[in-house]
Write a structure and sequence with these properties.
By secondary structure, the protein is of the alpha/beta class. Helices cover 38% and strands 26% of the residues.
Length: 239
C-alpha cells in the first residue's frame, strides 16, 4: 500500500532521515520506535508531504507522491494525527471535526451528506466527543484532545492513518484506552503507521515494527520478535 525507497530528508543542513526503506501492507499496523531525534516524526511528515524528500521515492497504492502537496495526499487517503494533537483550541469539538471533513470533497466544499456519515462513525468510536460537541477544543482534557485529533483525521475517511505519539503525556489508563481505539480503527479497515515512544504498547499492538536510530532503520521484525529482542529490551523497554 505504501512504499518508501531510499528516502533522505533534511531539516535545513541537517539530514534527519538517511536512506530508509519501508513497506506497509494494506490492513497492517506498523510501528516506528526510537529515541527522540531518531527521525520518526520526520518520516511521517515526509510521507504526508509536509516535508519533501531530498532523494528517494514514496509511492502510495502504486502512485508516486513525492512531489504532491499535503492536501492532495490527504485526498488520496493518507491522514496524519500530528504529535502534540494540534487541535484548534478556540473552535468547538464539532467545528474541529468539520475541519477534518473538508478534505473529503474534491472542491474544498464541505459535503454535508458525506460529513454526516463520517460523523456518525467517528462519534460511535468516541462517544465522549458527542457529549462535548459544543465545547471549545482547548477546554478538553489531554486524553479528550487526543481523541479529538484522531477523530478529526478520520473525518477525511482515510485509507491510511499516520499516528505521531498518540500516548504522549497521557495517564496509563488513557493510554490503554487510546490503543484500544487504534485497534478498533484498524479492525474497521484503516491501515495504520504508528510512531510511538511507548515501545511496549506499540509493539504489542503492531504486526511489524522498525527501530529508527539516527535517521536509519537498524532493526525490524514482527512485534513479538522485537519485544523479545535483547537490544530492544535494554534500549526501549527498560528491561
Amino acid at each position: 500500500m505504501l512504499k518508501l525507497k531510499n528516502i533522505h530528508t533534511f531539516y535545513g543542513p541537517i539530514e534527519a532521515v538517511k536512506g530508509i526503506d519501508l513497506e506497509v501492507k494494506r490492513g497492517e499496523i506498523i510501528c516506528l520506535i526510537g529515541s527522540n531525534g531518531a527521525g520518526k516524526s520526520t518520516t511521517l511528515m515526509t510521507i504526508s508531504g509536509i516535508l519533501r524528500p531530498a532523494a528517494g521515492d514514496i509511492s502510495f497504492e502504486g502512485r508516486t507522491i513525492n512531489d504532491l502537496p499535503p492536501h492532495m495526499i490527504v485526498g488520496m487517503g493518507i491522514s496524519q494525527v500530528p504529535e502534540g494533537r494540534r487541535i484548534f483550541p478556540r473552535l468547538t469539538v464539532m467545528e474541529n471535526l468539520e475541519m477534518g471533513a473538508y478534505s473529503a470533497g474534491n472542491s474544498g466544499v464541505l459535503n454535508k451528506t458525506r460529513t454526516k456519515d463520517h460523523l456518525e462513525r467517528v462519534l460511535s468510536l468516541f462517544p465522549v466527543l458527542k457529549e462535548r460537541q459544543k465545547q471549545q477544543g482547548g477546554t478538553l482534557s489531554g486524553g479528550e484532545q487526543q481523541m479529538l485529533a484522531i477523530a478529526r483525521a478520520l473525518m477525511s475517511n482515510p485509507k491510511m492513518l499516520l499516528l505521531d505519539e498518540p500516548s504522549l503525556g497521557l495517564a496509563p489508563i488513557l493510554v490503554s484506552k487510546i490503543f484500544k481505539i487504534i485497534r478498533e480503527i484498524n479492525n474497521e479497515g484503516v491501515t495504520i503507521l504508528l510512531v510511538e515512544q511507548n515501545a511496549h504498547a506499540a509493539l504489542s499492538l503492531s504486526s511489524r515494527g522498525h527501530v529508527l536510530e539516527s535517521g536509519r532503520i537498524t532493526l525490524q521484525g514482527t512485534g513479538e520478535e522485537l519485544l523479545n529482542n535483547e537490544r530492544v529490551k535494554k534500549a526501549y523497554l527498560g528491561e
